[in-house]
# Entry
Amino acid sequence: MTTTAERYRTYQGPAIFSMGFRPFFLLAALWAALAVPIWVAAFSGWLPADHFNRDWHAHEMVFGYLSGVIAGFLLTAVPNWTGRLPVTGAPLMGLVALWCAGRLAMLAPGFVVAAVIDASFLFVFALVIAREIISGRNVRNVPVLALLSVLAIANVLSHLRALDPDLALLGERIGIAVVSMLVALIGGRIVPSFTRNWMAKQRMTPEPAAPSRFDAVALGTGAVALGLWATAPTYYATGLMLTLAGVLHLARLARWQGWRAQAEPLVLVLHAGYLWLCLGLLVSGLAILPLGVVPVASGLHALTAGAFGVMTLAVMTRASLGHTGQPLTASPRISAIYWLVNLGAALRAISPLFPDIYTHMLAISALAWSGAFVWFVIVYAPLLLRRRVTISR
# Structure
């Protein structure tokens, strides 16, 4: 019986279509590098603001960029979870083409056609993952499949703005809530696991805390809080639950002892990404409570630019090294990606606090955040396009 490793070794087509992470990480990074400057240019009056507006920006970050990264990650992880053969070659090319068609459709006005083309990708991809998880009897990851399916439905809702703006906003919030839960769920597996592996090599003790009921409580509280935020974003109870979820996830993060991994940026950045999730939940909760402490936009961008941007780059940089046979350590060139994305996220999160210089901070934030993805493409394209190449260090 052919194994996953043998399937990868015997694949004879273009290297970029030998594993799911290769095309999706590369193309998603390119899209992130382009989409944010496009929106900033429209915000500044250099492009048509009636199309490349806030709604387009939100959609392409949540359902464009993130759907590509999620696809790359799951197509690489699911064969390991299920023991089934990976999606390679022509089927992978088809999925990539469908995702790219969605991005092209969203560049041009055209409500119905663009919506159908864009929305089809997540539904098709969910069916692919469902086949793998169900056939592999991988019950543990059914929640991941459920979240992916909800994300596909949320994308459809986001396209209904012309019919019902409130329904479209609901779709956006559901999408952000789903990705937040994916970060919490999958991050809760890989962050302590990779930290534990690194500490073991360094002979460091004690190790990060093992999974316990506390993790389940934190995840459950986060799910309730994000569900409330998606459906009732201004309610006092929502603010309380988000604040509580933020505190619980901070405690969860502390149990993984990330500060002890400061010598290895490849590990430390995973903790930074999860920290952004904690801050996003906490700040979003405080923004709702009647304290007037922080603006709503700060919490939103702590989640999106911070948690989503940092955690996806953390996973993309590590997975691309590991699955192409490179040492699992971050060179200064790779570390620069982490500095840029964290700087961009920090400036974006605090910019609403400085209305007098908001536009300037927005531009600098976009330059740093998008620059992280440009630099990812420059550093990682040789690995993703060819077999077994070494990054110069």
In short: The two ends are 39 Å apart (CA to CA). The chain has a mean pLDDT of 93.
